[in-house]
Design a protein that fits this description.
Helix content of chain A: 55-70%
Number of helices of chain A: 11
Structural class of chain A: mainly alpha
Chains: A mainly alpha, B mainly alpha, C mainly alpha
Strand content of chain B: under 5%
Distance between the termini of chain B: 64 Å
Largest interface: A-C, 79 and 83 residues
Low-confidence stretches of chain A: none
Low-confidence stretches of chain B: none
Radius of gyration of chain A: 19 Å
Strand content of chain A: under 5%
Structural class of chain B: mainly alpha
Number of helices of chain B: 7
Mean pLDDT of chain B: 79
Order of helices and strands of chain B: HHHHHHH
Mean pLDDT of chain A: 87
Oligomer: heterotrimer
Chain lengths: 316, 220, 674
């Protein structure tokens, strides 16, 4: 594989993730509608929504600062980077060594900090409410995610996502109890970080129950479109991280064009299942009271730590 | 790694057992606790059956069957009827809050693992690495008994502890003689009935199943 | 010419130059012109020179020098080696930025105060340089005490206020307790042999028990100066009491000299590091980290909050040092060097971004007179450049890529992930747990700085601007901005080009333990990539990171403008249908910390007074106190008072009793000497 092919793969993957992310969100919404016995909207509805938002005029509060104006672009840029690093279609991409799993968590933390700052910029009580709640959830979700990734790193001996995926995909089929714990913890963190039930209701319109929506209450038009898009890419990225860590079979090597269609098909199948599973979880659980969210996340954190300890025990 | 597939399955079931022990620590609803107890019994039965298949010890099949009958079907049914009659649904307060309990739980797990590692290296059974997990679930269930304030979760902790002991026996020594197992199973059943009778007495005396009322029985 | 080729002579010259600047300011000229206009900029230039010499020293072998000062048979020995060179680089570069800032900050002080501040400031800088250069215990203690004294006088600059006098007293007390412990440690190492030079102390062969005693004395002695648990109480009192450039210097540089002392004494002089020591350091470091960040989240005084964050970051440095000791103690020097490099890198990073944050707080104080976060809001409009630099500091301390805080945290995690090479089961499981503590602290720090930045700079002003306009209203002055820009540039350089610093620190590690990073690490690292162990195991490229995010951001902006439009309208903020939205309805600092207070309640000692329904003037008060006062400091103080009161019985006031004492002593001596 020469570097030109690698760059081509890299660009292809980034563009693919950015364009396909709203489709995943549409699919999750469809599954949720079916489970609630409603007729579902079109699976392309998020795209129509984005197009509609881009056409509108942006409205800013009179006191808005540059941080408020630039945050949607910065968020989108951070998610671009995440889309490029996570091995979605192929491993061994040229940008992949630039950031390992710790840097990936750092990218999400950077995005979270900027969105919280933008929320506080508004100067109303709702912005502060959103920022405070978002950081409350984030302060436990981030360490839990790190510990989950460390478990995977201990098993494969590296913190590079490429190496982890290669190790886990090409080993003989073995059941690792530590990975089982890590998978449960990862699922809980995914629900928390992507503002899903049981932590947050993504379709709520009641401001006092909002966590993530309260952060973006003030945004409109193209800024709102970029933020919604970035949220969709984040969900896509988290799901593909989960797939890469726990179900890595079928992934291609960079430069191997012949394996690409198979990788696409495998990815589509896994994401369809994962999206349906997410909708099922959201339908079965109820939203937690806000101060039970730290308990939920500390359970995830401690499960991840438990997974790490189990790895040390079972190995030696 | 060269661990055969059956041993890996037993490892996974052991991890599941530990997961349930942790989940019990963090649960507040009594109904869910009973369901978790039933799942724990099922995992136990499955792992006993797998060990029976891979080592050819047929008496373990009977153990597995007994476990299913007793711990998955009979005892949860008895507990369901109990809580229906006693109108118990929630256990809001614990002695110390849940995250702290789980942190102590992690400490106990490290302790149990550290204790079990040298013993595992000496044992010769297929499932020796699960001894630490079994010990950890016993300690976690004991912790659950200590921090709960109502009587029914305490009994569930007691039963979970017995599950962990049973698993430890299976993993270290391929089970106990059938006679001993039957005796233990009978004891557990009788114990549950006696607990039930005591619950009614406590309820009558104090109008509540909160065990802190028992302190009033102290002589001053 | 000779000065340029010898970093030791150069550093000595810089230290002497600082002393000269200090004294020159005392010359009584009109309006203290020298001190006002030239002293601080000259001091900054000297700092830059010192940084260059320190950098040079990292690449050369160790050099020594003996000065004919001091006592007749104990002259001053000086020595510069890679470790000292690294810390001199830290001292020089960070103090340069702070001195430039101070040139602007102290410009309007009255002459008397200004000359004194100038004197104390430059003596402080010179004494820190001598601490780093010292090669014998005598010069070390002399310089150490001078450092404590000069900083004490700086802390009580506003000594008319009793609260500041109390803070200064507490600071001096704990500094002296630490100094006694350090002195005792040197005594243990000295072992009665009569030679206090570091070479002799290094060569001493100690029995394991005495080595542990020396370790504990050094750890707690230097830890008292660094501000680790439980001897941290002076930090949140003294740092806010001092003027802002002094707080920056103390928090940024002075507590790092304590880390230098720890590394020098434990790794170099005592040697033969044992892994049990590492576990003690890890435990104390973990507790300090969590304690610092949790208390910082409860503060509404900006400088006190920053002081608690210094406590937290010292804990992070101790985590790295503890891991290094554990690895070296178990015989894995390569992993130990990685952990040591992570700890020292964090030392430099913290100096840079904490200095920047304190300088920003000083600008806020200078321009608005506000120190309480609950009164601030919307400062980004009046002070945009200060807001920009403070944002960089806030992003850096929250350990966010691609700035410098992330690099040292990344390196610490990489060191913790080497735990699989250990054989001891419990230690191998505990090391990742300490990494988990670090992750938790990082996330809590981000929360705290969202609070600080959001409440101070963003939103709308919480208090009506009816206080009289200050002379410095508006953005920070020119010199103040240059100082902050220097430190902000440092954050970027340390974050984007970490490999150069990694190589310098590798030299430090080689000089201390005899072994450096692995061959694959050095082969894989370059200006673009940071590879601490091997390229397959971990790598990081902050430049690519920044370039990709910046490119994506700009590309998105341009594409959206091109394909759609950039129209903007302005309106009032969305009020969800509530008619009356005032700026007082925003979150205050205490409100932002309420979720943490709820979750971590038992850790604090909280006194809350809620307004009742019948109060004519409802008032809500919240007091969060440090439990250590009630567990440790007050009981010790009461015990000391009790013992003193008993001993005070000796003082009867009658001459005959005193003569009786002398008589009894004489009889006793005659009996026992016979």
């Amino acid at each position: 594989m020469n570097s030109a092919q690698g760059i081509a793969f890299q660009i292809l993957q980034s563009v693919f993730v950015v364009l396909a992310a709203p489709l995943l969100t549409g699919w999750v919404n469809q599954c949720r509608a079916w489970l609630q016995n409603r007729s579902a909207p079109s699976i392309l509805l998020p795209y129509y929504t984005l197009a509609k938002l881009f056409h509108k005029d942006a409205i800013f509060a009179r006191d808005a600062s540059p941080i408020f104006r630039w945050t949607p672009y910065i968020l989108f840029g951070c998610m671009w980077l995440a889309a490029g690093i996570v091995p979605v279609l192929a491993t061994g991409l040229p940008f992949a060594p630039a950031a390992d799993i710790i840097a990936l968590v750092g990218v999400f933390a950077l995005a979270r900090m900027f969105s919280a700052l933008a929320a506080m910029d508004i100067g109303t009580s709702f912005g502060g409410l959103g920022a405070r709640r978002e950081m409350l959830i984030g302060f436990l979700a981030e360490p839990a995610m790190l510990m989950t990734l460390f478990t995977a790193a201990f098993i494969s001996g590296s913190t590079q996502l490429t190496t982890i995926v290669d190790t886990l995909a090409h080993r003989e089929f073995a059941l690792y109890p530590s990975l089982a714990f890590a998978a449960v913890a990862f699922l809980m963190v995914l629900l928390a970080e992507n503002a899903r039930i049981p932590i947050d209701n993504p379709t709520t319109h009641l401001e006092l129950t909002m966590v993530h929506e309260a952060l973006i209450l003030e945004y409109s038009a193209r800024h709102l479109a970029l933020i919604e898009w970035a949220v969709a890419i984040k969900l896509f990225a988290y799901m593909t991280i989960g797939i890469a860590l726990f179900l890595p079979w079928g992934i291609a090597n960079a430069g191997d064009w012949s394996a690409l269609p198979y990788a696409f098909a495998a990815l589509a199948g896994k994401l369809a299942l994962a999206g349906a599973g997410l909708a099922l979880i959201e339908a079965l659980l109820a939203k937690l009271r806000l101060f039970l969210a730290p308990e939920f996340l500390s359970t995830a954190f401690l499960l991840a730590v438990l997974g790490m300890l189990t790895h040390f025990l079972v190995k030696g | 790694m060269g661990i055969p597939i059956l041993a890996q399955l037993v490892n996974v079931l052991a991890a599941f057992l530990l997961l349930i022990a942790f989940a019990m620590l963090s649960q507040r609803r009594v109904l869910t606790l009973i369901k978790l107890l039933a799942w724990q019994g099922a995992a136990l039965a499955a792992s006993t059956a797998i060990v029976a298949w891979s080592t050819g010890q047929t008496h373990l099949y009977y153990s597995a069957l007994l476990t299913v009958l007793l711990k998955v079907i009979l005892i949860p049914w008895v507990l369901h009827r109990l809580i229906d009659r006693l109108f118990v649904r929630w256990d809001i307060e614990t002695l110390i809050n849940i995250p702290t309990t789980m942190l102590i739980g992690i400490g106990l797990v490290i302790f149990a693992f550290a204790l079990a590692t040298p013993i595992s290296q000496m044992a010769t059974t297929l499932t020796r690495s699960t001894l630490g997990i079994a010990l950890a679930s016993v300690l976690l269930s004991f912790l659950m008994m200590i921090v709960r304030q109502k009587a029914v979760p305490q009994v569930i902790g007691f039963l979970a502890m017995e599950n962990g002991l049973f698993f430890a026996a299976t993993s270290a020594t391929y089970g106990m003689p059938l006679v001993v197992e039957l005796g233990v199973a009978l004891d557990v059943l009788v114990g549950t009935f006696i607990f039930g009778i005591f619950f009614f007495h406590i309820r009558e005396r104090f109008d509540s199943l909160d065990i802190r009322h028992m302190e009033k029985l102290k002589e001053d | 010419m000779g000065v340029l080729s010898s970093p030791l002579a150069g550093s000595l010259a810089v230290a002497v130059a600082w002393l000269a600047i200090a004294v020159a300011g005392l010359v009584p000229a009109g309006n203290a012109a020298f001190a006002r206009r030239f002293a601080f900029p000259l001091g900054a230039a000297a700092g830059v020179a010192l940084a260059a010499f320190g950098l040079q020293a990292a690449w050369l072998p160790a050099q020594t020098l003996t000065l004919p000062l001091g006592l007749p048979d104990m002259p001053f020995h000086l020595r510069i080696d890679p470790l000292a060179g690294f810390f001199l680089m830290l001292l020089g570069s960070v103090s340069a930025g702070i001195s430039v800032y101070a040139a602007g900050y102290f410009r309007e002080e009255p002459s008397g105060r200004l000359t004194l501040i100038n004197l104390q400031y430059h003596v402080f800088l010179a004494s820190m340089a001598f601490v780093l250069l010292a090669d014998d215990a005598y010069l070390f203690m002399v310089a150490w005490e001078t450092m404590a004294l000069s900083s004490y006088f700086l802390v009580i600059t506003d000594h008319q206020l009793p609260a500041i006098r109390r803070a200064g007293f507490l600071y001096l007390l704990i500094a002296h307790l630490g100094a006694i412990a350090i002195l005792l440690c040197f005594g243990v190492l000295h072992g009665g042999r009569g030679d206090y030079t570091f070479d002799a102390l290094r060569a001493a062969q100690l029995q394991p028990a005495w080595a542990t005693v020396a370790f504990l004395l050094a750890f707690f002695g230097f830890g008292a100066k660094a501000g680790m648990l439980p001897l941290h109480a002076w930090l949140p009192e003294a740092h806010p009491a001092a003027p802002s450039p002094v707080s920056a210097l103390m928090s940024g540089v002075m507590i790092k000299t304590a880390i230098y002392g720890m590394v020098r004494v434990i790794f170099d002089l005592i040697g033969n590091v044992r892994w049990e020591w590492g576990m003690v350091v890890l435990a104390v470091g973990g507790a300090t980290t969590l304690f610092g960040v949790l208390y910082a989240l409860m503060q509404h005084d900006l400088k006190r909050l920053l002081a608690y964050h210094s406590v937290e970051n010292i804990g992070i440095i101790l985590l790295g040092l503890g891991m290094a000791m554990v690895f070296i103690g178990f015989g894995h020097p390569a992993a130990g060097v990685l952990a040591l490099i992570a700890a020292l890198y964090h030392t430099l990073n913290h100096a840079v971004f904490k200095g920047l944050l304190f300088l920003g707080a000083g600008s806020i104080l200078h321009s608005t007179g506000l120190r309480n976060l609950n009164d601030m809001g919307g400062l980004i409009r009046g002070m945009p450049k200060t807001a920009f630099y403070f944002l960089i500091g806030a992003l850096a301390i929250s350990a966010l890529p691609p700035l410098n805080g992330f690099v040292s945290e990344w390196l610490t995690f990489q060191a913790a992930l080497q735990a699989t090479i250990l054989q001891h089961g419990v230690v191998r499981s505990l090391l990742p747990l300490f990494a988990a503590t670090l992750a938790l602290a990082g996330a809590l720090t981000a929360m705290c700085f969202v609070k600080v930045y959001g409440i101070a700079f963003l939103g709308r002003p919480r208090e009506p601007a009816d206080h009289s306009p200050l002379p410095h209203a508006g953005d920070a002055g020119r010199m103040e901005r240059y100082g902050m820009a220097w430190l902000a540039a440092g954050c970027f350089v340390l974050g984007l080009f970490p490999t150069s610093f990694l190589l310098i620190l590798n030299r430090v590690g080689v000089s201390l333990t005899g072994q450096g990073l692995s061959e694959q690490a050095l082969a894989g690292s370059g200006w673009l990539w940071l590879v601490p162990t091997s390229a397959g195991q971990a790598s990081y490229s902050p430049v690519i990171f920044l370039v990709v995010i910046a490119a994506a951001t700009l590309l998105t902006f341009l594409l959206v403008r091109r394909f759609y439009h950039g129209r903007v309208r302005f309106a009032a903020p969305w009020d969800c249908g509530y008619p009356e939205q005032t700026s007082r309805m925003q979150d205050t600092a205490d409100a932002f910390g309420q979720p943490i207070r709820h979750v971590f309640g038992p850790i604090y000692r909280i006194e809350r007074r809620l307004p009742g329904p019948d109060d004519a003037e409802p008032r809500y008060t919240l007091k969060v106190e440090d439990r250590h006062w009630y567990w440790l400091y007050m009981p010790v103080a009461r015990a000391a008072e009790f013992v003193s009161s008993k001993i005070a019985l000796l003082q009867q006031g009658r001459i005959s009793i005193y003569l009786l004492y002398s008589f009894i002593t004489l009889i006793a001596l005659l009996v026992f000497v016979r």
